[in-house]
């Protein structure tokens, strides 16, 4: 059965939550390479954040068919660090650098403002010529 047909009859269950889309894509690719159809869905307004900012702070949920749930969970646990009860462990040096993301946000805001001024500088003189005749 093709993956597309299998996804149509899928009864999705959540098997994992990821911090970002990159981690979700890596896990999904690993599941698909093992023959398990999977997909991710952004939490909250994460889809809009992914489009606007290129990344989302809301995270991603990974879904598989309920028949593949146990096997998918084993594959994912083999890929990710976890403690005895199965909860995800994040080492201190693996935590995202918040100052780096703040710097990127500042750069994006400055670029947006510069583009806005550039656009206004190009449009306002033309409008003034039309108005003044």
Q: What order do the helices and strands come in, and which of them pair?
A:
Layout (H helix, E strand, L loop, with lengths): L2 H6 L3 E7 L2 H13 L4 E5 L3 H8 L6 E6 L3 H11 L18 H35 L1
Describe the global form: elongated
Specify the number of helices. Answer: 5
User: Uncertain runs with pLDDT below 50, 5 residues or more?
Assistant: 83-87, 89-95
Termini separation comes to: 69 Å
Helix content class: 40-55%
What sequence of helices (H) and strands (E) makes up the elements?
Answer: HEHEHEHH
Largest sheet: 3 strands, antiparallel
CATH architectural designation of the largest domain:
2-Layer Sandwich
For the record, the count of structural domains works out to: 2
The neighbouring-strand order within the major sheet is 1-3-2
Task: Estimate the strand proportion.
Answer: 5-15%
Structural class: alpha+beta
Task: Please provide the count of β strands.
Answer: 3
Global mean pLDDT: 76
Backbone CA Rg = 22 Å
Would you kindly provide a written description of the structure presented here, covering whatever features stand out?
By secondary structure, the chain is of the alpha+beta class. It folds into 2 domains: 3-91, Alpha-Beta Plaits, CATH 3.30.70.1530; 97-133. Helix content is 55%, strand content 14%. It has 5 helices and 3 strands; from the N terminus they run αβαβαβαα. A 3-stranded antiparallel sheet has the order 1-3-2, with helices on one face.
